[in-house]
Amino acid sequence: MSDFPKLLLGSPSSLPVVLSTKHNSPSFFPSFFSSLLHSFFFFVPYLFLCFKLPYKRLKTKMVALVSQESVVALVSRTGRELQRYRKGRRQVVGCIPYRYKIGEKTSMDGDELEVLVISSQNKKGKGMLFPKGGWELDESKKEAAMRETIEEAGVRGIVGGKLGKWSFKSKTHDTFYEGYMFPLLVQEQLEFWPEKNVREREWMSVTEAREACQHWWMKEALDRLVNRLSGQKLGREKQVLSSLNCIGDARSAL
């Protein structure tokens, strides 16, 4: 029987023999360093994995955060903890989403302006309006306008300069609000958005939207948008005519 089984069996004479054998054996130091070397090669890959896996997880989270910038949350903001007030009046912002539909040539360039209107929440078919909502402390006016438009109308695009500021009285809460409206040139229309199940959306002509809109101050904002776009169109036409005149003068000089 070897020394090791004797030690396990508790033989009175085995302990001194084993200890004496290990300490007096010429192979003690080589076996000790061999065990140490084996332990080293075992623990180094383990330590490597311990440090590498958290790094991989962190890297994955960073990639996920970057990719989520283009993802639309399917839940609207709720609560008024971050709501802005000015002199006791709640601050609201909104957008008039618009696009140019290529259709019959009803104008000089063949473009027809359309705007997107939505129904009131849970009141489908009872008066239309443009998307708007509370301006909160952690965002700019344009950011709030874009957020509200995505949440309520399910579109996003380029937000233009402010159309104006209005003071109006809420019919629901019997209090005065201050509202800011912006134009939004639609670039993407989403299939799913936070308030899809509680609102309807519909593209209308300017005339139809003006008749359907239930808020006077939104109608004024719509008129300002039309005037602005008409002015921009007129400016482009003048530039084209000026360029053509310059070309004609240059040919005459030749």
UniProtKB/TrEMBL annotation:
The chain crosses the membrane at residues 36-55. Keywords: Hydrolase, Magnesium, Manganese, Membrane, Metal-binding, Transmembrane, Transmembrane helix. Its cofactor is Mg(2+); Mn(2+). One of its GO terms (molecular function) is pyrophosphatase activity. InterPro entries: DDP-like_NUDIX, NUDIX_hydrolase-like_dom_sf, NUDIX_hydrolase_CS, NUDIX_hydrolase_dom. It comes from the Eukaryota. SUPFAM superfamilies: Nudix. Residues 88-226 form the Nudix hydrolase domain. It holds the Pfam family NUDIX. GO terms for cellular component: cytoplasm; nucleus. Belongs to the Nudix hydrolase family. This is Nudix hydrolase domain-containing protein. The lineage of its organism: Eukaryota, Viridiplantae, Streptophyta, Embryophyta, Tracheophyta.
